[in-house]
Amino acid sequence: MDQALNILVARLLAHRFLPRKDPLARRALIDEAFRESLDHRLAGCGLRLLENPYAEYIAVGLAAEMEDWVFGEGENWLSNNMGMPRDAIALLIVVWALIILPKRQRQIALSASDPDDMFGGTSPIEFGDEVAPGIPEEAIYADFGKKLGGKARFSMNLSQLAKLGFINRRNKMVFEGPLLDLMIDYSRLAPRIINGALADLLKIDAAAVEAPIED
Q1: pLDDT of 167-195, one tens digit each?
Q2: Tally of structural domains, the chain
């Protein structure tokens, strides 16, 4: 088990994310003893496994008790450790709301018909462009671009989000990237968006989107 753990942790750190269908990633999701050892190994480095049944990938992130040590610098609090400026973070939240909220609604509807065996066998949770279709870059810019720094900044920030793995760009369309559904806490952010400032702008139906509790 130790060798398998070493390989999985090394691959997660080197590649930043792994598809959940990867044999070791799948083992971490269904093997209770292996998962406990993995959590213990990551906790020893101030990290935790990032995963949820609605995400196609797994990754690692900071443990909660490490956030002050990493993000707190004197009187300033870093918004992220990826070098993203504030307008890039704002764009990330907009893209997350446009892609992940509708995707989660579709996945919940699909899984409601067969709630058993979320991880093994034929999973009711589906992934891909069918449940998370792309959004035209021009449409995002038309609604939010001028508020996020204009054309040049918008294009630059999209490129940065793609480079970091949050989105994929194909044919002037924005698609979900490996980290988009992992690096943002859905259970905390979704209610704020659904009931907050973006609700009217995004025309989100609060009754149709429920925020599940995530690990």
Answers
A1: 999 999 999 999 999 988 877 777 777 66
A2: 2
